[in-house]
């Protein structure tokens, strides 16, 4: 089974239209990108965490899929705190590195924004079947069928690439290739399978493109869809919740006088 179509517990979020999920992610992301302050990001993250309880993912699935975000957020925050623009009182200094009140607040805001934007996006993607997403893009948003089907085919291959990487790693280990220690051994263990996977990907993509073209997927004729995709009342409610999260986050930041429009 593909890692992009995980086995999840039945949930309300999993049954919603993927277009509605995409709209919510875009609404929240755009609202948080209008300003860089920690209040709006913190409020949005708090509200999102309350809603993620109903996403249908188990605790293990949630932490595994969101692990890159939890790693990236503190790294972005620490980097901004140490090397961000200095403003306000000086809190700590070592050589050319200085931490001020302004850089600390900016680092906190960046870290919270990474979490507030990344977590819901990953969770909504994990609870969405790629075929349902393609149906929604083609039938609801009216995107070109050729573009949608090509994207769906590519998305389906990502899970196969992960399996290929695992198989290549085991095969090289069985042959005793790249078992050396140190930086050189680690480089060989990474770049060897990476090059092999690149070759496999190009060959597989070419064969898939030829097969899809031979079966008429590249035709400009009107296409029918096996599964209808419609926007229903629960989908509209989800979009309303996304608008509410964005509005509350901005409203609280304006009330706390921390809102600072980035284009002002």
UniProtKB/TrEMBL annotation:
Major localization class: membrane
Source organism per entry reads: Cryobacterium ruanii
Classify the source by domain of life. Bacteria
What keywords sit in the KW lines? Cell membrane, Membrane, Transmembrane, Transmembrane helix
Where's it found, cell-wise?
Membrane
- Per the record's keyword annotation, is Membrane included, yes or no? yes
One GO cellular component term noted in the UniProt record for this chain: plasma membrane
Q: Does the keyword Membrane apply?
A: yes
**Membrane protein topology class:** Multi-pass membrane protein
| Name listed for the protein in its UniProt record | Energy-coupling factor transporter transmembrane protein EcfT
Pfam families attached here? CbiQ
Signal sequence, start to end = none
Q: Which CDD domains does this one have?
A: EcfT
Residue ranges annotated as transmembrane are: 22-55, 62-84, 104-126, 236-256
């Amino acid at each position: 089974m593909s890692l992009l179509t995980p086995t999840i517990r039945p949930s309300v979020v999993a049954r919603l239209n993927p277009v509605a999920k995409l709209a919510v992610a875009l609404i929240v992301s755009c609202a948080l990108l209008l300003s860089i302050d920690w209040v709006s990001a913190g409020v949005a993250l708090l509200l999102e965490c309350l809603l993620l309880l109903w996403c249908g993912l188990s605790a293990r699935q949630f932490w595994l899929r969101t692990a890159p975000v939890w790693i990236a957020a503190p790294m972005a925050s620490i980097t901004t705190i140490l090397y961000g623009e200095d403003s306000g009182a000086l809190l700590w200094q070592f050589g050319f590195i200085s931490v001020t009140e302004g850089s600390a607040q900016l680092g906190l805001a960046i870290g919270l924004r990474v979490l507030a934007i990344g977590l819901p996006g990953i969770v909504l993607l994990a609870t969405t079947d790629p075929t349902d997403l393609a149906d929604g893009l083609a039938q609801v948003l009216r995107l070109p069928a050729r573009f949608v089907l090509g994207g769906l085919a590519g998305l389906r291959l990502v899970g196969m690439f992960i399996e290929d990487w695992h198989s290549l790693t085991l095969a090289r280990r069985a042959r005793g290739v790249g078992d050396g220690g140190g930086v050189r051994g680690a480089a060989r263990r990474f770049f060897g399978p990476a090059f092999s996977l690149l070759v496999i990907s190009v060959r597989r993509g070419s064969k898939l493109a030829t097969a899809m073209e031979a079966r008429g997927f590249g035709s400009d004729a009107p296409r029918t869809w096996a599964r209808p995709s419609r926007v229903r009342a629960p989908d509209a409610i989800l979009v309303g919740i996304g608008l509410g999260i964005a509005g509350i986050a901005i409203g609280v930041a304006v009330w706390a006088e921390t809102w600072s429009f980035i284009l002002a």
